[in-house]
Amino acid sequence: MGTNMFISAFTFGGGYIVVPMVRQFFVAKKKLFSEEELIDMAAVAQSTPGAIAINLAALAAYRVAGKVGAIISVVSAIMPPLIILSIISAFYNIFITNPIIVAILKGMEAGVAALMVDLIIDMCAVILKKKSLLLSLMIPVSFICNYILNINVVLILVCSSLICIIHVLYKRGMAQ
Question: What is the DSSP string of 74-139?
């Protein structure tokens, strides 16, 4: 409970920033599950409805402590942002005009960008370890489709999922 409250209170930048924090505590420090299991949970968390941070907190806690752990984890992950946003909303005009707070937020943007790059590198490393040409090619193709061709991310995710499903079904058919 305390860990998820800490992670939720000090991760700015969205759900993708939560993944390195969860990795640090659950994988590196406590060794409660593997890096690959974390990447799988992160993939499920981002592809299911709701906030990635909340979904990942629920999945990680369920893996470690079952249903009760998942419920406690979700409540713990929701409370800090709810309190912080309530305070910021109450004093919005003061926050938005204060140059020190604006500078702090700009600095946090740089830190968030660095954490996101770290996560992307780690996710790519896990994919490349699988030594699957299909999965390895999906990385640059997805990037090109989104960044250069401006194809909607939802369409890219749906197509990537369908390609992987077809690939698995094809392999099963070949094995029989």
Answer: HHHHHHHHHHHHHHHHHTHHHHHH-HHHHHHHHHHHHHHHHHHHHHHHHHHHHHHHTT-HHHHHHH
Record the tokens describing residue 83, joined without a space.
């309190």
Give 11-39 as a 3 state SS string: CCCCHHHHHHHHHHHHHHHCCCCCHHHHH
- Give the model's confidence band at 1: pLDDT under 50 very low, under 70 low, under 90 confident, else very high: low
Taking the C-alpha atoms of residue 50 and residue 30, their distance in angstroms, rounded to an integer, is: 27
Copy the structure tokens of residue 66: 């079952």
3-state DSSP assignment of residue 53: helix
Q: Extract the tokens encoding 52.
A: 């990635």
Q: What is the pTM of this model?
A: 0.60
Q: Of 108, 158, 128, 110, give the one whose Cα is nearest residue 39.
A: 128
